[in-house]
Specification:
A hairpin with a 5-residue loop joins strand 2 and strand 3. About 30% of the residues lie in helices and about 15% in strands. It is built from five helices and six strands, in the order ααααββββββα. With about 200 residues, the chain is of the alpha+beta class. A six-stranded mixed sheet has the order 3-2-1-6-5-4, with helices on one face.
């Protein structure tokens, strides 16, 4: 857990790239690799990047919520995409359109969330960190809203929501229990829960 926190905290310190697309993605990938190597040497050493055409295709798919099967590659690409501005797209091809919820600022999907002091639920964009209001009882991935298909487990100030329809997990921090929102720690918690192989188990 300490390594996960250190990796996410280091990545949160990286600056955004200013180069034009797609050069910015190449530079961002290098930035992420160097940052990860500083705190977790070898974590990405076995990951091979595909050709540029495939890389750009995977980047577009990831922005839509289609995550590559190789978890380490998906993590590397996701973190790089956080450092760049996404090219302008038409309204009919808004990124994240297949997700139940999208970021109002960039169209990305949420990766973590929080409950505020009044218990209202907010989600945080996986790409630009914009917070936006969310339904209190709904899966952000498939839109499931039936109470008997949504369960959550508590571990300290964190809640792990599990959707029985799509099998996805979503981690939120309850600010009534821990008032300071620390996104690197929250994302490290989400990564830890994602490592669990079995669904619907209390982690």
């Amino acid at each position: 857990m300490e390594i996960l926190e250190a990796v996410h905290r280091r990545l949160s310190q990286l600056g955004r790239r200013r180069e034009p697309w797609p050069e910015a993605l190449k530079e961002a990938l290098l930035d992420v690799h160097q940052a990860v190597e500083q705190v977790a040497p070898g974590l990405l050493s076995g990951v091979r990047l595909p050709t540029q055409d495939k890389l750009l295709e995977d980047a577009q798919r990831l922005r839509r919520g289609e995550v590559p099967e190789d978890a380490a590659y998906a993590f590397w690409l996701h973190q790089a995409l956080r450092l760049i501005s996404w090219p302008e797209e038409g309204e009919s091809d808004l990124p994240g359109k297949d997700w139940a919820e999208r970021c109002p600022a960039c169209g990305g999907f949420p990766d973590v969330g929080y409950l505020d002091a009044e218990g209202r639920r907010f989600h945080v964009c996986a790409f630009c960190d914009t917070s936006f209001r969310a339904l209190r009882l709904a899966c952000p991935y498939c839109g499931e809203a039936r109470a008997d298909h949504l369960v959550y487990y508590e571990e300290g100030p964190y809640r792990v929501y599990v959707c029985r329809s799509c099998g996805e997990r979503f981690v939120v921090q309850d600010l009534r229990l821990k008032a300071e929102l620390d996104l690197p720690v929250l994302r490290a918690q989400a990564a830890r829960y994602a490592l669990a192989e079995e669904e619907d188990v209390e982690v």
